[in-house]
């Protein structure tokens, strides 16, 4: 099973709302990632968790707050977002961040619209 | 940081045609992947190919690591091949960096 699941599929929120995106994998992977993808652009890395510890934060604004409750789950908490944060948010996982010879597997994404 | 360039940016084909997509990268890599992003946004792994040649059905890929490029071949294209094809490599921090993609449209 190489499946990464994400919920919800679509999300519309106002700039004062608080919402969360969820990601789950059951492949025993120890690295999980959040990417942001704007329309007609490639995915850009936001956060990396390795063994449930945040190992990189690509200078993402604090209105995005990641959380890794356990090795299978990854959340992205959203608060006071701006319209320019509207994008496709992709979750991915891999066996180990520090092993170069491996594949990242992506979830289907959450399409976020901020009004 | 490492630069990843893909060409062409857009490609329109008639069903049944063959195509070659190219990915150039600016530094040596230990990991290179090709992905297909379908119209619904799902990124699908096509190949993990840091060097050499692999084939999977109508798709094949070749990476010449010493010359810093990779090619993705699509033969007998079908409308379901439409979407965006991304090449991605790991940088010095083992973080994945994507090229800008090739947007493929296959017309019936």
What this model shows, in words?
The complex is a heterodimer of chains A (115) and B (108). Chain A is mainly β and 115 residues long. Helices cover 0% and strands 56% of the residues of chain A. Chain A starts with a strand and ends with a strand. By secondary structure, chain B is an all-beta fold. Chain B is 0% helix and 57% strand. Chain B has strands at 4-7, 10-14, 19-25, 32-37, 43-48, 52-56, 59-64, 69-74, 83-90, 96-98, 102-107. Classes of the chains: A mainly beta (115), B mainly beta (108). Chain A binds chain B through residues 2, 33, 37, 41-45, 48, 56, 88, 90, 92, 97-98, 100-106, 108-109, 111, and chain B through 30-31, 33, 35, 40-45, 48, 50, 86, 90, 93-101.
Q: Give the C-alpha Rg of chain A.
A: 13 Å
Low-pLDDT runs of 5+ residues of chain B are none
Amount of helix of chain B:
under 10%
Question: Most extensive chain contact?
Answer: A-B, 25 and 23 residues
Supply the number of helical segments of chain B. Answer: 0
Shape of chain A: globular
* Gyration radius of chain B, in Å: 13 Å
Separation of termini of chain A?
Answer: 37 Å
Helix % of chain A is under 10%
Series of secondary-structure elements of chain A, N-terminal to C-terminal = EEEEEEEEEEE
Ends distance of chain B: 40 Å
Number of strands of chain B: 11
Q: What portion of the residues of chain B fall into strands of 2 or more residues?
A: over 45%
Mean pLDDT of chain A: 92
- The SS-based structural class of chain A is mainly beta
- Give unreliable regions of chain A as ranges: none
How is the biggest beta sheet of chain B arranged? 6 strands, mixed
Proportion of strand residues of chain A: over 45%
Let me know the average pLDDT of chain B. 95
Following the backbone from N to C, one meets helices and strands of chain B in this order, namely EEEEEEEEEEE
